[in-house]
Amino acid sequence: MTGLELIPLIVSSAATTVAAANALYLGTAALLYGGLTVGLGLVSRALTPKPSVPKPEDGTYNLKQSVPSLPIVLGRVKKAGDYVFLEQSNGVAYHIIVHAGHRVQGYVKHYLHDEEVVLSGSGVVLQPDHFHDDGDDYIVINTRLGLPAETAYGDVVSQLSSIWTTNHRGDGLASIMMRCATAPSKDYLKIYPNQMPEHSAVIDGMRLYDPRTGVTAFSVNLALMRLWHLTSPYGGKLSIDDMHLPDWINAANVCSQTVTNRSGGSESRYEGGMWFRANSDPIEVGRTLDQAAELVVYERPDGKIGVHAGEYVEPTITLTRNEIISFGLNTNVDPATTVLAVRGRFTDPGDIYNTNDAAIYGNPYVGEDTERTLTVENVAVQSHNHIQRLQKLAYIRRNGARVSITAHYDPDNDVAYHRFIRVQYSPKLSDAVIEITSKVTISLRDMTVSFSGIVVPSGLYDFNAATEEGEPGASIVIITPTGAPVPVNFDVVIQTEIVSGGSTAAYALASWDLVSPSLTYELEWEKTSGSTGPQSVVSTAGETQVRSGYLADGTQYKFRLRSWSGGASSAWTAYEIRTATADPAAPGVVTGVSATGGVGQVTLNWTAPNSANYSAARCYINTVNTFSGATLAATEYGAPSSADSRNVTGLTAGVKYGFIEAINASGVAAAPVATGAFTVT
What we know:
12% of the residues lie in helices and 38% in strands. By secondary structure, it is mostly beta strands. β6 (106-112) and β7 (115-119) form a beta hairpin. Residues 1-47 have low confidence and may be disordered.
């Protein structure tokens, strides 16, 4: 076996098979620290490049293209989706959008453009108000989780059955159906201020297998995401039997450990989320997850895939001068290779899952004018404390001393499967912890082992959030469009004026407070009963009042007002109820009042007042001699100064009392006049 070299593999993204993976070394640490030898994996990637892992901003807009690659959602993310259907019927647009090519845990929040919306139990968008205008529902959102056997959207089937049937179920596809009704042209910009709504959602994604419990459930644990990725058709294409589960159980436990953040609150050590497509580069996806959770994936001697968790493990192997054949030390003090500070970029849930800058770890301008910084950017990190811990690790590793070692190979103390070892090589290194950052090469010809590493402190993962986390950058505040302001101090007064022929007509005069001279106001009115539809009038810009058209005399109306600006209107005010009165002056009282009872009836007599605006007399009956509580029995129309009478039938036997009041054409009444008692037999 002369010349045979065994290469224990630290795998960052396993390829299609373990055999293919053995051609690849892409360990997370090696990618961070450099010194990587190009292998078959990179050559293959160069020949057949695949799309990169999407950034959070790449999920802002819905994709409209033919047959996009399936999206995969891990953890909680915010993203738009891929259109699979967009048609309209009877003035209603139907959108069907797929967000994930697998079952998801659920939809947490829905957004239309940048506005978070509130749904009713049936999916009607109730908030913001402009999507639910004047009691009319304009948008409905229904969801499907991507179950193995889904249900077609009934609204689409019923309206567009010729092209979308009950067979269009979307099995295994997490999707939404958004129904958008056409708005009236004058209200279009108010209801749809950003034109057709652009939907996105916060989603709890993939259900992951947890070897600690044996249960498959939703999780934001990054180690479980990496385990899934290695065993998925979109990643390593391995089986769960190919994984050394004790390692993965430990890694998941480390990810779930509690740490304290700068505010004194608690959070898990390595949690997050990301999304990618089925055709995204699996190496890049794996590297993203490995970096976020500080994982180093490797192949064990038994051929199974293990993982070093993101924690410090006290070394069990110590190399001394007796074992070391050659030793190289680079103290790494050259300004060209060291940094003064580390910047960070992460996905911020507090900023609607956009990419944000973290606080700078270190000081980029210590004693010099040249900025020397390194940037750690990871789309799967969703906590400021988390990215700050990664920044500190990057700072330590970038500035740490480098070693390269060749030592005698001892199968009983094989460094190939360890992340940390100790080296005692005085006077250069008396007792140092080394983090191995390269592939470990074992030569059976020379019985030697060679590797490179970085000198790190035993407190590599120690982090005091109160003093080290720093202040995160401020998020961009999204100002939700408010539209035109609702009118202030809206009031309606009924006015009258003389029209042709000398008669009087009533109209409504609406008033409000001046807010801006650029606003116009629309007054709407209609009858409270028997209405033939609302009417409206628009004011002149800068005015604080507007009048309606003529109103039907004696009729009750309801009035409301809204403002207009830039083609969009405000919400309506509450209704004001008024009765139109063309003649507010009461006529004189009736005279010569009398009442004669009979069998089940009474005859009422009176003389109309000598008033030009007299129109009729109202006849009231009561069982007591008070007008309060009397019942209107009849209205008798007649001329002024004329004698009149009215026979009222259907009365019960007993002593009754009558009252007569004169009214004008607007229904304004004079004081009632009592007839006195009469007996009904």
